[in-house]
Specification:
The chain has four helices and four strands, in the order βββαβααα. It is α+β, with helices and mostly antiparallel strands and 94 residues long. Strands 3-2-1-4 form a four-stranded mixed β-sheet.
Length: 94
């Protein structure tokens, strides 16, 4: 099992990879995850785990055509979030 890649997010929105001692982009984080690397993002001030929101930002940044997905995004918001939306899909398929 590989070591968890710890990324610190600073107030200026920069992301710093503590394992490699360098700044990284959201796209680089997404590529690491796609290759199987475990990643954890922490807020440098609060030390809180902000991995989820950061990964959501990475998805948005790497998605080519979110504008074409307006209906899907609207449905997710109407459902009360992604978890509830996905739950409604599994219920509807039964």
């Amino acid at each position: 099992m590989s070591e968890v890649r710890v990324i610190k997010k600073y107030a200026n929105r920069k992301l710093y990879d503590t394992n490699e001692s360098k700044y990284v982009t959201l796209k680089e984080i997404a590529a690491s995850i796609a290759s199987g690397q475990e990643v954890m993002v922490v807020d440098n001030v609060t030390k809180g785990d902000i991995t989820g929101p950061t990964l959501l930002s990475a998805i948005v940044e790497t998605e080519q055509d979110l504008a074409g997905q307006t209906t899907l995004l609207r449905d997710i918001v109407k459902a009360g979030g992604l978890t509830k939306y996905l739950g409604s899909l599994s219920t509807a398929s039964k």
